[in-house]
Amino acid sequence: MDKDPARSVLGSLSILDKLLPVWIFTAMIAGVLIGDLLPGSGRLIDSFQVEGVSLPIALGLVWMMYPPLAGVNYREIGRVVTGSKKVVVYSLLLNWVVGPFLMFALAWVFLAGFPLLRDGVILVGLARCIAMVLVWNMLAGGDNEYAALIVALNAAFQIALYSVYAYFFITVLPHLLDPPASSEVVNVGALSIAESVAVFLGVPFLLGMASRYALTRRKGARWYQEKFLERIRPTALIALLFTLVVMFSLQGGYFVQLPLRLVRVALPLVAYFVLMFGFSYVTSWKLGFSYKDTVTTSFTAASNNFELAIAVAVSVFGLSSSQAFATVVGPLIEVPVMISLVYISLWLRPRLFAPRTQADRRVASREVEEV
């Protein structure tokens, strides 16, 4: 048995997940170069619009959300909630109270003079985890059923609350905190955000539920999980990369500013991921949660649904907006930070959750082997 399970973390990732920041950065640069060499290409794609949103981009954004939502088993919610009420309630508190306010505060601290970038970062903070968190949780040895439950609950909560939260944190709260700067604040109507959420979260949500119901009845749950989901999962990345290439083909003029803008947006995001994970981990441990529950609570609290944030920013503010740019930086930063947190979590495991009996040690040893 490998005495250091942390060594196998990168080896457990698929090539797509392992190099996700590379693919994203490559798509950004490719888009900028296309915008420079073929300045009309991005605008040509953007010209086919429905309700103010580019049709090709709209299809890409909907498909980007579909694979992770198709992977959620909503039938498990009731069973898991019944057995883990305390853990679930605390996780929802972290996701829907602590997380949004923390990201809002960090965005205002680090991006005080850049309200448009700040709004994009806030959109990332409001979009709670539904996809990649399952990977981080698995690698760190968390509870997979509990993680799937939080993913399902977050998906449902986002349909009901995301537009309300976005309107409050982007339009209402900035006016209350800094009235003199209200002219710099972008007033976004709750209805426009709700429409975006209904299309870019509601449509793939319904498609995902329909796919699971129809295909599991016809082919079985095992085929659906091991064959169908494995085949469609990489297509979400293709849809994301297509969106990024078009987005940055419209932002060719920002090429020189790109590194500086990346750093500006990266600072609050890195601070958020580290602080949110650290706070969730320590408080869960103090509350007496098991290692598995602590890990799952921490990763589901610290991760974000960057697909939804990108979709809303693009549809509400436009492909070439600073808000859309800020949301794109989310996955670029999140992946390497989360991999680092997996290592930290595994390192802390024997130090904070030392088995008290020989039987506990045997159980812990089997769990480490599974990781």
Describe how the helices and strands are arranged.
Layout: H1 9-12, H2 15-18, H3 20-37, H4 41-46, E1 49-50, E2 53-54, H5 55-70, H6 77-83, H7 85-110, H8 115-126, H9 133-139, H10 144-177, H11 190-219, H12 221-249, H13 258-286, H14 291-302, H15 306-317, H16 322-352, H17 358-370
Antiparallel strand pairs: 1-2
Helix pairs in contact: 3-12, 3-16, 5-11, 5-12, 5-15, 7-8, 7-10, 7-13, 7-14, 8-10, 8-13, 8-15, 8-16, 9-10, 9-14, 10-11, 10-14, 11-12, 11-15, 13-14, 13-16, 15-16
Query: Biggest β-sheet, characterized?
Result: 2 strands, antiparallel
**What class do helices, strands and sheet pairing give?**
mainly alpha
Radius of gyration from CA coordinates: 21 Å
Q: What is the global morphology?
A: globular
Number of strands: 2
Number of helices: 17
Order of helices and strands: HHHHEEHHHHHHHHHHHHH
What does it look like?
The chain has 371 residues and is mainly alpha-helical. It has one domain: Na+/H+ antiporter like fold, CATH 1.20.1530.20. It is 78% helix and 1% strand. The chain has a two-stranded antiparallel ribbon with strand order 1-2. The longest helix is centred in the middle third of the chain and has 34 residues, at 144-177. Mean pLDDT is 79; it is low at 1-6 and 356-371.
Quick rundown:
By secondary structure, the chain is mostly helical. Helix content is 78%, strand content 1%.
